[in-house]
Write a structure and sequence with these properties.
Organism: Fonsecaea multimorphosa CBS 102226
Number of domains: 3
CATH topology of the largest domain: Double-stranded beta-helix
Strand content: 5-15%
GO molecular function, one term: transcription cis-regulatory region binding
Protein name: TauD/TfdA-like domain-containing protein
Keywords: DNA-binding, Nucleus, Oxidoreductase, Transcription, Transcription regulation
Number of strands: 20
CATH class of the largest domain: Alpha Beta
CATH architecture of the largest domain: 4-Layer Sandwich
Number of helices: 30
Radius of gyration: 34 Å
CATH superfamily of the largest domain: Clavaminate synthase-like
Subcellular location: Nucleus
Largest sheet: 7 strands, mixed
Length: 925
């Protein structure tokens, strides 16, 4: 700032002591009875959720209702009026000290983000006398630890809040003045010293320096930005630096005089006023525009009567923009907008790839989302992952040449190919990534997201298969680091959602982490404010704000999570976690996501209603449940009939999701906890409908329901591009058909279609297998076991899966396969099936597999399998015997006959079946 500007300009928003004394309503609010009831209700809500300390609480755990209104007043007045506000009236004697801490913390969560008050990381500090040997002028002394008089100063945050638990026996008067008024008075009296205060001073960190920083730093006392004033004034920190670090320049006489002049003016009665605290008071001060002091106090004789305050340092959503001269001091606490601007400034100084070097078909990059998505837009927790101090030193990115992850090195051409592959074959299935984001920008912001995309794209790209195997070993370590070090960014959420669709391969389904990834993504998304639990009127712009530049990204992440969780709920038989108020599609969702994805989302969210309606095991009337299923089926079909009218809203992938929801619905009627008459006409209709849906799903799976940007692109095996839930529901459809064939209630024509679909579905599973024992192979093996034996009566009801919603049906059948194999398994080398010919090119890379060959005499879409010779299956086709007839006769089996005792043994341990986990559930499945 130029000298003449400093001398001539007096700033607005100054106030004097008389203004505060004559207008207490301007800065004090006493809680009403209704507001106090809301606060008490919020506390009881928190306690009922099992929280015993502040550390586990979230904003959603402390719903304030009507008492949010005074918090809006606080944020408005503290930033744009006097910089001072007091909330009064909380009955401190009614609550224990731990409960008061939780109340204060809950209020703080609704106002902004708490930041650390020391190198120890404490965010809720205790202000009380720790002994007469503590003095703020010492090297590491802090004023709040003592009882001595504290001169006028500021704290190191936007807002300091103090909650009063116990007042002093005497003394302890809180004194406040306007630093704007002090600044203006210096401009009138000593403009020469005003100029000095806008220049740099050296400050001591007082033992609380951040990692990598020295013991002191350099910033001015006064600064301005965008017409907004900011003062940082803590004289002991400046004088301690002079005493402890002789290498620093000595303070000039003018600097010393300027420092003391601030204290002198603030101490004049005209400029400050004092207030005595009451138990339950909460005082908020804006450190940028106020100074505060405290008189010496005398404590009571016991711990219970000693002065005790709780202190919060808050970063509110509406805090002022700070000058570049002081922004480094607040580097971990800046608003999203400021951080974005600084990153853009830094990026402008880097040599980024030119337009011609961008990966093909890539638009110029848009501004990256640098926030965690925090809807409070707070200065804390907004650092990108690349700016964290976590030990991810193994990642390097030389964007114009190579991308490195430990010993894995990718050339730029490889990365371009992989990103093309990802956006061509995977992105449309889960449109969670900004298609205009460049690989170099992604790895800078989130190595986890970058390598997740690379891992996903490698899985079916022959030229990159060796990288896929390498990343199978490396990604678990990166994910393990995420478990230990919280990295709540939009990029982390995107990576977790992608891995929920295309996870790491596992040997046991109990090791599948998709449900865990989905849960982590939900917690991060809720914390970041991607969704607000409740209704619009419960929020106001001061406690909840969303950057327009981030809104589409937040919407994409939240809605992709809703889709992933609903699908996993349907597949695993676990409760759908999508909040009730997120079940309705909103205009913002339709604007942010493709129409076909919105259609899939609309349909799959219906799983929540199905589970809520049918998941209650107390219903003993099977006929009533059948009728409820028919009504829900009608609702789903009504929803779908409207979507079918628009080509943009309906395609094979939408139909696949529609069919999985139907299978989930029908499953509730195909397995009963109480006896039900199978001759009930409604039950026969349900069986027929379920068979039709399962057969159609298998045909879709076999003929590739996925949209592809370039239809001319050949896919050697399209099944391997599917998200994992496609494989799981293909297998589920097969299990359901086997169950229906055992019930033997549908017509012979329908049973014939069931037999055809089982053959087709088994071939589709085998075409996706690349090695014996992989997940496709294991799923096919379970189907083969059940085709061999069918459902064993003695196994029914023995697996504890009653509470697993529609998944209970296929869990029962998996239990059947496990029991049958354990009763009949004998170890030994597997003989070669000499009668087997190779299945078509879709299965060319596992021609040596020893799974029994199929004789497919019927059309099977893209999965046609032609086998020479005849097997027992021909007699099945000739006489139209049903699967139910075949399953008791080893010579009438639709697969080739071999010694099943040498097959891959399916054990209870391998499949993770138990009371709380199963092959289809548990920790992921």
């Amino acid at each position: 700032m130029a000298e003449n500007q400093i001398e001539s300009n007096l700033l607005d928003h100054e106030w004097l002591a008389v203004d505060a004394q004559n207008n207490p309503d301007r800065w004090i609010h006493r809680f009403t009875e209704e507001e106090l009831k809301d606060i008490d209700h919020a506390l009881q809500t928190t306690l009922s959720k099992g929280h015993k300390t502040c550390e586990t609480m979230t904003k959603e755990d402390f719903p304030l209702g009507r008492s949010e209104k005074p918090l809006q007043q606080v944020l408005e007045h503290v930033e744009n009026d006097m910089g001072l506000f007091v909330l009064r009236g909380i009955p401190a004697s009614k609550y224990t000290k731990p409960e008061m801490r939780m109340i204060y913390w809950g209020i703080g969560l609704n106002m902004g983000v708490a930041v650390s008050q020391s190198g120890k990381g404490d965010v809720l500090g205790d202000v009380k006398n720790l002994g007469d040997n503590i003095h703020p002028s010492s090297k590491t002394g802090r004023g709040y630890m003592s009882r001595v008089h504290l001169g006028f100063h500021t704290d190191s945050s936007d807002i300091v809040g103090l909650m009063v638990l116990q007042v002093a026996k005497s003394g302890g008067l809180s004194m406040i003045c306007s630093s704007v008024a002090v600044r203006n008075e210096i401009a009138r009296r000593r403009p020469d010293l005003l100029k000095v205060l806008y220049e740099d001073f050296y400050w001591s960190w007082k033992g609380n320096s951040p990692p990598g920083a020295g013991p002191y730093y350099k910033i001015p006392i006064f600064s301005e930005e965008g017409g907004r004033f900011s003062c940082r004034y803590i004289p002991p920190h400046i004088f301690t630096a002079q005493e402890e670090y002789p290498e620093l320049p000595r303070l000039t006489e003018q600097q010393k005089e300027a420092i003391m002049l601030i204290q002198q003016i603030a101490n004049e009665e005209k400029f400050h006023f004092g207030m005595m605290f009451e138990p339950g008071d909460i005082q908020f001060l804006n450190n940028h525009i106020t100074l505060h002091a405290r008189t010496e106090f005398e404590d009571g004789d016991t711990d219970e009567t000693k002065r005790h305050l709780l202190r919060l340092w808050l970063c509110p959503p509406n805090s002022r923009k700070l000058s570049h001269n002081v922004v480094d001091f607040y580097r971990d606490q800046r608003p999203v907008e400021q951080l974005t601007q600084e990153l853009e400034r830094l990026k402008s100084g880097l040599q980024l790839p030119s337009e011609s070097e961008r990966w093909p078909n890539q638009a110029p990059p848009t501004q990256l989302n640098t926030s965690t998505g925090s809807d409070s837009s707070s200065r804390a927790e907004v650092l990108p992952e690349s700016a964290s101090t976590t030990p991810l030193k193994s990642f390097q990115s030389i964007h114009d040449k190579t991308f490195k992850f430990e010993d894995l090195v990718l050339l730029k051409a490889d990365v371009d190919e992989l990103f093309r592959e990802y956006f061509l074959h995977y992105h449309q299935q889960l449109p969670v990534i900004d298609v205009q984001a460049e690989p170099a920008a992604i790895i800078d912001e989130s190595p986890l997201l970058f390598w997740t995309i690379v891992f996903t794209a490698c899985r079916n790209l022959p030229s990159q298969q060796h990288h896929y195997r390498s990343l199978c070993n490396k990604l678990p370590g990166l994910l393990g680091h995420l478990m230990m070090t919280r990295q709540d960014s939009t990029y982390t959420m995107q990576a977790l959602l992608i891995l929920s669709m295309w996870p790491l391969p596992v040997q046991r389904q109990s090791d599948d982490m998709r449900w865990l990834y989905s849960g982590m993504a939900m917690q991060m998304a809720m914390h970041a404010g991607c969704h607000r639990v409740g209704y619009e009127h419960e929020y106001h712009p001061y406690t909840y704000s969303k950057s327009l530049s981030n809104e589409r990204s937040h919407t994409r992440i939240w809605r992709c999570w809703c889709f992933v969780n609903a699908v996993l709920s349907c597949e695993l038989g676990l409760p759908c976690l999508v909040p009730f108020d997120a079940l309705e599609i909103k205009p913002g969702d339709e604007a942010a996501l493709p129409a076909d994805f919105i259609s899939r989302l609309r349909i799959v969210l219906y799983v929540s209603r199905i589970n809520d309606t049918l998941g209650d095991n107390t219903c003993k009337d099977g006929s009533h449940r059948l009728r409820m299923v028919r009504l829900l089926e009608k609702d789903v079909n009504t929803l779908v009939s409207g979507l079918r009218q628009s080509p943009a809203q309906w395609n094979p992938s939408v139909e696949f999701v529609y069919l999985i929801v139907l299978l989930n619905l029908y499953s509730f009627c195909l397995r009963w906890s109480t006896p039900v008459s199978l001759s009930d006409p409604d039950h026969t209709i349900i069986q027929s409908s379920a068979a039709q849906a399962a057969c159609q799903l298998i045909k879709l799976y076999s003929s590739s329901p996925l949209p592809v940007d370039n239809p001319s692109t050949s896919q050697p095996c399209p099944q391997r591009y599917y998200p994992k839930f496609y494989l799981r529901f293909e297998t589920i459809a097969l299990l359901m058909l086997l169950k229906i064939s055992v019930l033997n209630q549908i017509s012979l024509r329908e049973l014939g279609e069931v037999d055809d679909a089982v053959r087709l579905g088994h071939g589709a599973l085998m075409s996706g297998s690349s090695s014996e024992g992989d997940e496709f192979h294991r799923a096919a093996s379970v189907v083969e076991v059940l085709c061999k034996k069918g459902v064993i009566d003695s196994v029914r009801g023995k697996s504890t899966v009653e509470s697993r919603f529609g998944a209970s049906l296929w869990l029962e059948l998996v239990a059947t396969a496990i029991r049958w194999r354990r009763q009949n398994s004998k170890r030994g080398p597997r003989p070669t099936d000499n009668s087997r010919n190779s299945i078509n090119n879709n299965n060319s890379n596992h021609a040596g597999s020893t799974i029994p060959a199929l004789n497919m005499s019927r059309a099977a879409g893209s999965m046609d399998v032609a086998m020479s010779g005849s097997t027992a299956a021909d007699s099945v086709d000739a006489t139209r015997l049903t699967m139910a007839d075949v399953q008791g006769n080893a010579n009438l089996f639709p697969f080739s006959i071999e010694d099943w005792s040498v097959y891959l043994d399916i054990t209870e341990a391998d499949l993770g079946l138990g009371n709380d986990s199963s092959w289809w559930g548990g920790s992921g499945g």
